[in-house]
Amino acid sequence: MKNRFILPGLCVIFVTSFTNTKAQTMSTDLLAPKAKVIPKSLEKHKDIRIDNYFWMNERENPEVIDYLNQENTYYNSMTAHTKDFQKDLFEEMKGRIKEDDQSVPYLYNGYYYITRFEIGQDYPIYSRKKGSLSANEEILFNCNDLAKGHSFFQLGGLSVSPDNKFATFGVDTVGRRIYTIQIKNLETGEILSDKIENVTGGSVWANDNKTIFYTRQDKVTLRADKIFRHKLGTNSADDVLVFDEKDDTFNVSVSKEKSKKYIVIGSGSTLTTEYRILNSDNPDGEFTIFQPRVRGLEYSISHFGDSFYVLTNKDKATNFKLMKTPENATSKENWKDLIPHRKEVLIEDIEIFRN
Q1: Which of 242, 217, 237 is nearest to 227 (CA)?
Q2: Structure confidence at residue 10 (pLDDT)
């Protein structure tokens, strides 16, 4: 079962007694594998550290794979006497969870979207109903079918085009959160030839229904560092780089404002944030900086009407405050207090509603 059974707040105490002395003797006779030591000096911030096992980050190195196989063999041998107990424990946990569960339907752009599970199935089914919960169900993705033939499967980043005709989705079949984005025609069921590899999985549609923006990550560190633009029906090798985060202490993301008017690129580190915005009706345009990064200045933005609402720690607002600025004058000197800073109240987040 993949990413399915989570029991929050459950404390389980196990008391076991093993009487199979022969099995115990056989297990304890097996020596644990020992990885070879190859010292490597690593220097950062003028501090030197020795990593004896740095060589093991070479994922395709046959010696690394061989050592991991030895570890697995050792584990399987040492825990062989618990296999039946593991199975019984899993079945008991599963028996306490509703298998045919589903999410609360949510209305988006004329459709109710639902994620549900069926008894005996490991993976979710994504569906929608047009206009009413009594309408016929339209299956978008049955992950139980998509997962066949894979030892691991994860679907993420599901995003439907503004005209409701296409959906982008990311697939990871390895387990390292390295996704491949593909596009499905929801009217015909066809999976388009577009295939974008080594990405975070999520993507954002522009208002033209043919342009998407997505995040690519560093192949080694998996840090999200680049934002690309892709046109439907084109080769991903021709995709346009629209932003490259050079500072390796920052991660990037791309999203769309709830108002649907702006595509937003966010750059964030522990203490500092920065955003870039682009009108969703003009996907080939240039992103503009909302407010240039200033170390220690954190802010997030929400668009509504002709303004942006800014949640920020500006002016030493350690508990954060809410400010407002015109959408055509977004630098911090234009921000005006809407809910001022209060020492006794922390503002964690805000949500914009139409009415």
Answers
A1: 242
A2: 46
Residue 355: predicted pLDDT: 86
Q: Residue 230 and residue 206: Cα distance in Å, rounded? A: 10
Nearest to residue 146, comparing CAs of 178, 199, 182?
182
What pLDDT digit, counting tens, does each position of 288-326 carry?
999 999 999 999 999 999 999 999 999 999 999 999 999
Residue pair 300/268 in contact by the 8 Å Cβ criterion: no
Q: Which residues of the chain have pLDDT under 50?
A: 1-12, 14-19, 21-25
At 212 the pLDDT is 98
Residue 316: what are its φ and ψ, rounded to 5°?
Answer: 60, 35
d(CA 253, CA 200): 9
pTM score, two decimals? 0.82
Residue 137 CB-half CA count within 13 A = 11
How far, in Å, CA of 303 to CA of 350, rounded?
11
User: Residue 134 contacts by C-beta under 8 Å, 6 or more apart in sequence?
Assistant: none
Confidence at residue 30, expressed as pLDDT on a 0 to 100 scale: 84
Convert the chain into a string of H (helix), E (strand) and C (coil): CCCCCCCCCCCCCCCCCCCCHHHHHHHHHCCCCCCCCCCEEEEECCEEEEECCHHHHCCCCHHHHHHHHHHHHHHHHHCHHHHHHHHHHHHHHHHCCCCCCECCCEEECCEEEEEECCCCCCCCEEEEEECCCCCCCEEEEEHHHHCCCCCCCEEEEEEECCCCCEEEEEEECCCCCCEEEEEEECCCCCEEEEEEEEEEEEEEECCCCCEEEEEEECCCCCCEEEEEEEECCCCHHHCEEEEECCCCCCEEEEEECCCCCEEEEEEECCCCEEEEEEECCCCCCCCEECCCCCCCCCEEEEEECCEEEEEECHHHCCCCEEEEEECCCCCHHHCEEEECCECCECCCCCCCCCC
Q: Identify residue 69 by its one-letter amino acid code.
A: N
| pLDDT at residue 28, as a whole number | 57
